[in-house]
């Protein structure tokens, strides 16, 4: 029996094509998914990677061999696949490795209505079935295969949720990173009073210009420079599968995902007073403060889309945001969509006369370190050492909802979490000033890296 533990992750399937992932294996994943959801129909989409069309077709063949019908929407962003799953009320599979390098590919799965499939909600069963190589269903007619383009429907739906037609004219630079934003942005922004300056819109899964991961500062350098050179009102960057967006202001300065979370939360609360807003425990403390100030109910969760979506379903939350630039909307089947978050930011900007830097400064209350990674052999031991070092200090509170979160008496705090896939500890620090962030980071890292 083959061992697929190396590629079946907590939330998706991901591996190196030709070494860990090939058409034969993906056919088995398709069969296993069809057995899990029981049919009668699933929807699939794929990104621009060279291997994606072949792998998505193999997945479809595996599902069809189980008697399940397949609707293929072809090229798509991940949130476009979620849209199709929600609109058609069908289970879905998206072929993408997001921001991973060109040699990778993967599969993100969901049940009908874009409900997530993770390790405990079906992915473990899919792995087990695929390891045993699912036989074709006997005595069952092969499922049908239909191609359907849903790009126009996706764009129209987003534009129903955020009205941009009456805002003042804006000029924005968009860096698609040769990913799926280059496919979706032209359709979504057509007819709006927004001049789009495109960067790297050519679909190219080899990522010739830079990695399609806008959270890494080196990958937004081009966007920052172009935004300033064009005299644009803002810059927006999407990751490879365009489910995350990152924003820079008119000066090219990054707008933190926490500030975007707070801004969008305020807009959603204006439509739905008293609503619940989800934020993960690494977002700035400014987020729950601002949510409360606008009459909302902040709810803190673990990091990760399955936890966010689960909590949104449980609480009826209207919106959720993560430090990683994932944004979740009740009106989008509780799924994450970077495009919808970007439209909210541009609507907020265009509804008033000031620059984006002025608009967002009210959401930036504290200084933050960003994620600092340390390679550590004994992750649990180092976390225990941090707990011992800070647990006895006056005014300190500690919780272990996700890793270790330490709140200090002066209002500063940090979270230390182990990576699920690498021998890394991830540190995030927030404090009143940049100097205080550096001091606290150095103090914690001295113990982590000892």
From TrEMBL:
GO biological process entries: carbohydrate metabolic process
Alpha-D-phosphohexomutase alpha/beta/alpha domain segment(s): 8-126, 153-252, 260-366
Keywords carried by this UniProt record: Isomerase, Magnesium, Metal-binding, Phosphoprotein
Domain Alpha-D-phosphohexomutase C-terminal: 371-445
One GO molecular-function entry: metal ion binding
InterPro entries membership: A-D-PHexomutase_a/b/a-I, A-D-PHexomutase_a/b/a-I/II/III, A-D-PHexomutase_a/b/a-II, A-D-PHexomutase_a/b/a-III, A-D-PHexomutase_C, A-D-PHexomutase_C_sf, Alpha-D-phosphohexomutase_SF
Cofactor field: Mg(2+)
Family to which this protein belongs: Belongs to the phosphohexose mutase family.
PANTHER family registered for this protein in UniProt: PHOSPHOMANNOMUTASE
Protein name: Phosphomannomutase
Organism: Lentzea aerocolonigenes (Lechevalieria aerocolonigenes)
Recorded name of the encoding gene: manB
């Amino acid at each position: 029996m083959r061992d697929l533990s190396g590629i079946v992750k907590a939330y998706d399937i991901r591996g190196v094509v030709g070494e860990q992932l090939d058409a034969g294996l993906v056919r088995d994943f398709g069969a296993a998914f069809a057995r899990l959801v029981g049919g009668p129909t699933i929807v699939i989409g794929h990104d621009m990677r060279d291997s994606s069309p072949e792998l998505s077709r193999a997945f479809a063949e595996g599902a069809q061999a189980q008697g399940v019908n397949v609707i293929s929407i072809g090229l798509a962003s991940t949130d476009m696949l979620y849209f199709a799953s929600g609109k058609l009320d069908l289970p879905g599979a998206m072929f993408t490795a997001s921001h991973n390098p060109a040699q990778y590919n993967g599969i993100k799965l969901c049940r009908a209505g874009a409900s997530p499939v993770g390790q405990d909600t079906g992915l473990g069963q899919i792995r087990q079935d695929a390891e045993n190589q699912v036989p074709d269903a006997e005595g069952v007619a092969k499922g049908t295969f239909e191609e359907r383009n849903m790009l126009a429907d996706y764009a129209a739906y987003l534009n129903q949720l955020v009205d941009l037609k009456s805002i003042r004219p804006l000029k924005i630079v968009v860096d698609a990173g040769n990913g799926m934003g280059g496919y979706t942005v032209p359709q979504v922004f057509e007819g709006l009073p927004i001049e789009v300056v495109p960067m790297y819109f050519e679909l190219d899964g080899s990522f010739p210009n830079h990695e399609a991961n806008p959270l890494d500062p080196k990958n937004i350098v081009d966007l920052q420079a172009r935004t300033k050179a064009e005299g644009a009102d803002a810059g927006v960057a999407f990751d490879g599968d365009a489910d995350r967006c990152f924003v820079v202001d008119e000066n090219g300065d990054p707008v933190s995902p926490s500030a975007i979370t707070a801004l969008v939360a305020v807009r959603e609360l204006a439509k739905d007073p008293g609503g619940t807003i989800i934020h993960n425990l690494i977002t700035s403390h400014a987020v729950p403060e601002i949510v409360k100030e606008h009459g909302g109910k902040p709810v803190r969760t673990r990091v990760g889309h399955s936890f966010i979506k689960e909590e949104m379903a449980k609480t009826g939350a209207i919106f959720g945001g993560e430090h990683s630039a994932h944004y979740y909307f009740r009106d989008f089947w509780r799924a994450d969509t970077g495009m919808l978050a970007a439209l909210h930011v541009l609507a907020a900007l265009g509804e008033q006369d000031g620059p984006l830097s002025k608009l967002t400064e009210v959401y930036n209350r504290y200084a933050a370190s960003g994620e600092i990674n340390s390679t550590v052999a004994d992750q649990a031991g180092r976390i225990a050492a941090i707990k011992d070092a800070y647990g006895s200090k006056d005014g300190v509170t500690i919780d272990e909802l996700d890793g270790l979160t330490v709140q200090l008496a002066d209002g500063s705090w940090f979270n230390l979490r182990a990576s699920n896939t690498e021998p890394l500890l991830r540190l995030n620090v927030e404090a009143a000033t940049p100097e205080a962030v550096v001091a606290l980071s150095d103090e914690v890292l001295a113990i982590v890296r000892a």
